Amino acid sequence: MWTARAARVGADSDRHGAVAFREPTGRRAAADADRGIRGLSGEDGSGDERRTELAELPEHSAGRDDAQQLRGFFQRRSGRRDELDGRARSKRVSARSAWKRPRHHRRQHQRDADRNGGSGHRRPVLHYRRHRHGVVPERDDRFAGRIAPVPRTARLAGWVRRRSRRRAGSCRGLPALIATVSLIAPALQGQSPGGDDADVIRAIRTESVERSDAMTIVRWLSDVYGPRVTGTPAIEAAGAWAADRMRSWGLEVHEERFAYGRGWSLDRFHAHMTEPQVMPIIGYPRAWTSSTDGTVAAEAVRVDLDSRAGRGRARGTLRGKVVLLQPEREVSMLEGDIVLRMDDDLLARASRPGREEALSSGGSGPRHDPALHAYLIEEGVVAVLDRGSDAAHLVGGGPLGGDLAWPTQRTDGGTIFVGPGGSREANAPPVVPTATIAVEHYNRMARLIEMGIPVTVELNITTRFHDETRPNGFNLIGEIRGSDLADQVVILGAHFDSTHAATGATDNAAGVAAMMEAARILQAIGARPRRTIRIALWGGEEEGLLGSRAYVDRHYGGGNAGPRRPRHSELSAYYNLDNGAGRIRGIWLQGHDDAAPIFRDWMRDLADLGVTTVGRRSTRGTDHLPFDRAGLPGFQFIQDRLEYNSRTHHSNMDVTDRVQPDDLRQMAVVAAVFAYRTAMAEDRLPRR
Hints:
The chain is of the alpha/beta class. The chain folds into 3 domains: 5-169, no CATH class; 194-261 and 469-680, Zn peptidases (Aminopeptidase, 3-Layer(aba) Sandwich); 263-466, Glucose Oxidase, domain 1, CATH 3.50.30. 37% of the residues lie in helices and 17% in strands. The strands form 5 sheets. It has an 8-stranded mixed beta sheet with strand order 5-16-18-17-19-22-20-21, with helices on both faces. It has an 8-stranded mixed beta sheet with strand order 7-6-15-9-10-11-14-8, covered by helices on one side. Strands 1-2 form a two-stranded antiparallel sheet. Helix 16 (505-524) links the parallel strand 17 (485-495) and strand 18. Helix 2 (26-41) packs across helix 3. It is elongated and about 75 Å long. Residues 1-64, 93-101, 118-151, 167-182, 184-195 and 357-361 have low confidence and may be disordered.
């Protein structure tokens, strides 16, 4: 073992100061040191000068090892060079400026150097600089005159330092390497089926790891374009961006319009309690609510208006007031389930048949009541504040109810779940300006009012309606054309629109990004599917699956969509993503039991990614339903719901920060594999 430390590195020490070298250890380091000592001793043929330098080393003694001797020699030699630093600095500047002079000036410079004590020997001098691989020489300055040369100790130290850094650098990037291997290694080990499919699946995984575009898509849709309410300028701009993005990948893209109604967007909102104290209020106006008359200040009152009797008692007392319609709600500590990842027990239950019950998610609070708003307008109410639903736990998704309701505790703490407060219909009656606020702020004001302490609220709600001069709804369609079965279609779908209270990251920019990324991957690897692979980004989902319903009605028919159209037989399968930003764990069968063995076979290639479950149940509430109801194979993937129920679904916290990049990449890989396998199969997927 040995250690070397130089106080200064040659003539450049005034720039860089002391340099501490790495400390190699073990037999390899000892060999490096031995080679360095042989070089100093002249055994490498360097001549008498190095033998003279070696003679200055102290004799070997029992009390001092080689490392101590070498360290002392370096320190003494560096000390002797310190006195040359001043002259070296000035001459280096002169030498470097001389490099750009005409040739006769350079000759004069050399003669001047010789007269000032130089021997006339124009020995090249190497200047040293910092470099990520250690100390390396700059250009050979042939006109530097008698500038003091860099000590050989510095050259030896730089060589050792570079060797050490190369060894240490071999471990850099290890975490990223592990993550990459975890995604692509199973494919490399031949866990895919034989033939071309194995190569394509391996390429899908590799493309996702090395060049994923999924989080970029999420950031553009969520951060740049924000809430994408159908019929608004924001979703139009986002749609134009997504179309351009898919065209840049080589997809054929078009949009299909459908009637929707008025769009709605928020221009301004702020709310404060001003009496008895100032308290900024966390909140968000309900969608399709109207505007206040600028900034208004009014007394807040707490009244129950659920019944005719309550409305009768309050009649004539509400003019010019801000009304709190609900009682105080208890706020629980966060002791329940917040993040939901599917464990083995839940996956086992999902794979078994079970009872299914439609349950309310309980997320958005009181529903819009046109009769109540007519009463409030008649009474002259300034605005209405609510605090969301009464539920302490939120359920949702999956095969609703029964033993898979998946309840998670609502987070509160400034998270608010905001629903609609009006209608998108052009001839809808007017509504009172309405906002949902944080339960903690609502409770405080309700308690103060109950104690007889007057409460004053100041707020401004400014909204805008976007009339339907042309159909406000649109679906964005992109496709990769098939080959011998191009008339048959596989569709990957996700709804493009969002609610208004946040930026729609987990609902549903994540699903859109995963499906777009799946299409990009297949195009990038040069996949040549037999069937056409189509990506459909739906509008109007949040108002009742409007976009996917319009698409099924127009192209396929069947079931609720009327008589079947000729293309009904051409759809092989529709796959949907719309349950948050968690990774895919399987797929719901929706009654297509004959497809179960096919899906299980495909999942063998994806088991290492956690995709193992064929759910023998049906799920509701998203865009596979119009296909399913039309007698078409429409499927929703099973996902880890993460914070979807407890924090992000239709809340003011549905933001990019809640999207998990690793899960998103996995979603894209799974969707791409399912699409490709479906497109390459000998037959269409079986139907009910």
